[in-house]
């Protein structure tokens, strides 16, 4: 069955370009030209993927992304912007977008990004469906991470994590005790180079600390290694 992609953009030329190239690659395409229409179609059509422009009439893409995540819709989102704006980029990813591209872009690169994102989400879904029990467990102190279940718990309570927050936590847990540079984390978790945009890593680390540290100013799990990066370690007994 063909995957369904929702394209939300207020430029007809972009809609036409993406619709043509996506259909040529075998995807079913739905379109919307403003944020409110995009939000409605996302709920009604249940697409497998959303391409979402940041600058939209009625409701901007950041707000659309935020509302989709608040509604617990875990559909993958690729955000587009005409501005090479670091704040927009970090905020979009922070709110739960899976990827980010700046206009002008190559249709081939968009297709490649979509395939990579859908491949990752399919692997995650299959892992969840095949898991008949707790599966693999990564444990550090009061933190438990279940890779197959795509779940993490702290002090017995399930953590509400965005897909990227979970992937970052999982990578840190699989490499516990190792110092990981920001560039390593960018490459491993985001799967491509953000051209040195390491603030994305710092934002996600900050969010994880808010969820698993008693005192974020004195973290005992995720340690900052000055000049290098981060390390997840077993908290020392007091």
Global geometry: elongated
Largest pleated sheet:
5 strands, parallel
CATH superfamily of the largest domain: Response regulator
Helix proportion: 40-55%
State the distance separating the first and last CA atoms.
56 Å
CATH fold assignment of the largest domain: Rossmann fold
Class derived from helix and strand content: alpha/beta
What's the CATH C level of the largest domain? Answer: Alpha Beta
Structure description:
Helices cover 43% and strands 20% of the residues. With 238 residues, it is an alpha/beta fold. The protein folds into two domains: 4-129, Rossmann fold; 132-232, Arc Repressor Mutant, subunit A (Orthogonal Bundle), CATH 1.10.10. The strands form three sheets. A five-stranded parallel sheet has the order 2-1-3-4-5, sandwiched between helices. Strand 3, helix 3 (61-70) and strand 4 form a beta-alpha-beta unit. Helix 1 crosses helix 5, helix 2 runs parallel beside helix 3 (61-70) and helix 6 crosses helix 7 (182-190). The longest helix is centred in the middle third of the chain and has 24 residues, at 107-130. The mean pLDDT is 86.
């Amino acid at each position: 069955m063909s995957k369904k992609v929702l394209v939300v953009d207020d430029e007809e030329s972009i809609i036409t370009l993406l619709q043509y190239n996506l259909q040529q690659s075998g995807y079913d395409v739905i379109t919307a030209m403003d944020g409110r229409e995009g939000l409605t179609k996302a709920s009604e059509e249940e697409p497998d993927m959303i391409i979402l422009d940041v600058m939209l009439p009625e409701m901007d893409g950041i707000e659309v992304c935020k509302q989709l995540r608040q509604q617990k819709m875990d559909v993958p989102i690729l955000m587009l912007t005409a501005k090479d704006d670091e704040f927009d980029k970090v905020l979009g990813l922070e709110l739960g977008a899976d990827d980010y591209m700046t206009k002008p872009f190559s249709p081939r690169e968009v297709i490649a990004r979509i395939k990579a994102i859908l491949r990752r989400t399919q692997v995650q879904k299959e892992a969840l469906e095949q898991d008949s029990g707790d599966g693999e467990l990564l444990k550090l102190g009061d933190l438990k991470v279940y890779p197959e279940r795509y779940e993490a718990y702290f002090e017995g309570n399930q953590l509400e994590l965005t897909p990227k927050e979970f992937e970052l936590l999982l990578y840190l847990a699989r490499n516990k005790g190792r110092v990981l540079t920001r560039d390593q984390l960018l490459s491993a978790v985001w799967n491509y180079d953000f051209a040195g945009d390491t603030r994305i890593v710092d934002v996600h680390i900050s969010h994880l600390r808010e969820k698993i540290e008693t005192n974020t100013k004195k973290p005992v799990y995720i340690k900052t290694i000055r000049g290098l990066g981060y390390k997840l370690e077993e908290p020392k007994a007091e």
